[in-house]
Amino acid sequence: MSKPSDLVQGTLDMLVLKILALEPLNGWGVSQRLKQMSSEVLGVSDGSLYPALHKLEQRGWITAHWKLSENNRRSKFYSLTRLGRKQLEKEAADWNRLSAAISGIVKFKEA
Amino acid sequence: MTFEQWFYSLPLRLRSFFRRTQVDQELEDELRDHIEQQVKENLAAGMSPEEARCSALRAMGGVTQIEQQCRDARGGNLMDDLAQDLRYGFRQLWRSRGFSFLAILCLTLGIGANAAVLSWIEGILFRPYPAVAHQERLLALAGTARGETGATEISWPDFLALQRSCTLCDAFFVSKITGSTLNIGERAEVTRGSIVSANYFDAIGVRPILGRGFEAGEDAGSDAHPVAVISYQLWRNRFKGDPQIVGKMQRLNNVPHTIIGVAPEGFYGTFVGWAMHFWVPASMEETFESGGYKLEDRGARWIEAYIRLKPGATRAQAQEEISAIAKRLENDYPSTNRGRGIRLWPLWQTPFNNAATLLPTLEIMLAVGAFVLLIACANVGNLLLVRSFARRHEMTIRFAIGASRIRLLKQLLTEGLILSTLGATGGLLVAYWCRHALVLLFPERSGVAMYLPGEIDWRVMSLSAGICLMATLIVGLVPSLQTRNLALAGALKAGSTGVVGARGKAWARSGLVVFQVCLSFVLLVGAALLLQSLQKIRTASPGFSTTNVVQTGVSLISAGYDVPHAKTFQEELMARVRALSGVESAAFARVTPLGYGTYSSTPIAVDGYQPPPEEQPAIDYNQVSPDYFATLGIPLLSGREFTRADDENAPLVAIVNQTMAARYWRDQDPIDRRLQVNGRWVRVIGVAADSKYESMRESPKPFFYVPLLQDFVRGPALYIRSAQPLQSISAALLREVHALDPNLALYETITLQEQVDRSTSPQLVAVNLVSILGGLALLLAAVGLYGVMSYGVAQSIRELGLRMALGASTGDLFRRVISRGLRLTAIGVLCGAAAGLALTRLFGKLLYNVSPNDPLAFAAAVAVMTITSVLACVLPAWRATRTDPARVLRD
Lengths: 111, 891
Known about the structure:
The complex is a heterodimer. By secondary structure, chain A is α+β, with helices and mostly antiparallel strands.
């Protein structure tokens, strides 16, 4: 599975989980939200988003339902499961720890 | 993935496997939805419709690739792969049909042998009575006597006491095998049946399909309730399924019985070895058993019983309770019960039926079956190794274009699974055909074939499935050793010309052959030991002469003779028999040695002999007529034989055997000493040599004889010593019997040698079974050796050609191949001999006067193995000599 090269491995999963934790969305919605929230810095290609969604669904972290979207089209909506919420907490904690450590090192060099 | 996740996503995975088109359609819809949205966005931003679409597609990337990535992410692959592997595996196996056939045949034989043995163990030892409710809680109950090993019968009053006081069992019933001549219409035949307690049918949960079972109280009184339940088979075959059968009369042992019920189909009673065809209540015991009315005699031990534990109770708890009751009986009735205990046995160890005789053989068969299966697996593994070499090119290419090792391993295991599943199916068919085959190995007795059904139930099936899985692993993993070190470049370069590169592989194949030779050698030694043992047991002297003596009997009880009439008849018959030409002597005896009947047993006392405390010596004895010792050829060591003068009016006398004399009179002469038998004193008048009484394998035991006229029975066996052939004696005898009473029939007339042979039939069965499977193992090992040698020759054809070109003669090449084969055999035999020294102990229980490490058996096994391997190597060796050096070198 191809992954955006400038995205730390595994981070995409966490971002998607975080976005879906706020509200259930379809694939399009997730991709738009990703662009908005990261001010397009991350530049996740739509091509790599869908395999990630399917993988998360397969792992039991998110679940999908077909329903009508705002503009009356049948669309596949994803929402977070109980397992997914736990996973998100874990990954967020890991990320916080990791980024704190890294930024600590970076700051230390600057000083 | 955690279990929770796995469980959660299971429906998804199943869906992506079974509803593949729908899932694909949804994926397509989802992606199209995204693109449409993007297009709309682009249009809103002012692009032309065409531009908007192009840009949206560009942003997405290759739709097909994404779809594939999504499918991969879904991981429905596991099952996709399996389906693919199965399809591919079947195609591969079909392409090399010869190989597949051989492999499946090997596995069929290996798994079939095991499944058959398991079905016998299930049907004979663990679930012997299919129609009986809750067999898993049934236990056999029999008596014990202090100072003696083995089981004894129990008495009716003791049984009633146990039945009353036992709280841990919900059923307590008697079932004692008996027999009767059944005359219906023109046909007369011996039929087996059971004497049972009145609660029998209720206790085992069997409802008669017609009429009723026995009612409470029908097992009390002397000949008080002549009623019988008959088996379904008897009803169908002999009474033509008469719907009005209930209430009809049928003579059993010449006593009219009212048929009160018909047992359901598939119920064969509760005795391992024979199918029961009628059941009578215990009150009819006198009609079927010798020894008179015994229901109120605590000293008369004649019944065999079963209990069923209450749910949750264990055998140990029940044993504790029953031992306490037995202890109480011992205190209350010391004269009959001193030193007597009651013991429970699991069904598979039931001491009083054929479970006990077959147990050691079936135990051995488990080990033998495992050996055969391992040999078969080694063979298939070897075949697969050869093929995996041929498929190395294919594997390398698949590996090179990106198949993971795991994926290749899965493929190999799948092929192994296909082979072993087909083998297991074949094996279960083999087992199904063989499930009743055990009977064929037993000689018929009294014209009635034994009934030893195997049972193929879910337990046998699941064990066989387990065996099949194990075989899959062995068979699939052997060739996968090879994929472990696939050297990509090397293998691709070498191409498909198949240059033998690896010493390692030859080593693996040779190792497998050595393993096979080793295992089959152990089986050969086992078969040789059993054969030797059978030889010894059949030629061993039982202590009486087996040639020129025939044994038969006249059924006087069935004919309704009372005691005075029977005495006169016996006397007249004896006079007529003695007068026959060629008859040297003749005699009667109540019980035939090594036969199925039970000897009378009595507590004894001897002047001057102090038994150990808490022990009541009890000794078996036989009632014999004058001339018994002369007729059977049992030497009298001192004293005299019984004579016509030792009748009911004369002082009571006995003849003891050597062992008894030595034990109770301590080397003094027992002649004219006193011996207490059944509470009466008798005078010892002779000492007879020891002989075998119940089994050829028994060790010498105390035994004595009393005159038939002083302890009369109406239906004794008749022995005739004569040099005439069996048929002419039998015909002459029948004439004399009919001259006295035309309504009488003779029992089966057989020689005493035949009697000995019948009593050793379990040994014969063991020999047959181990020989059949040992032969199978040998054949499989020979095929394995042949395969390795042929392959070796085919692979080293270049080397052979070169040798020939350099001047080696065909003889040299021939010897070279043969000696390589023999080298493998020799290693295998050495390993086998080492294993054999440790393993043949397992045969100990079945051996008679043969050491498990008998050198003769080992030597015989070496000889057979060597000859077999030479035979297996001849064809490959001959092929080696046909090498055309010119052609080989040119290629």
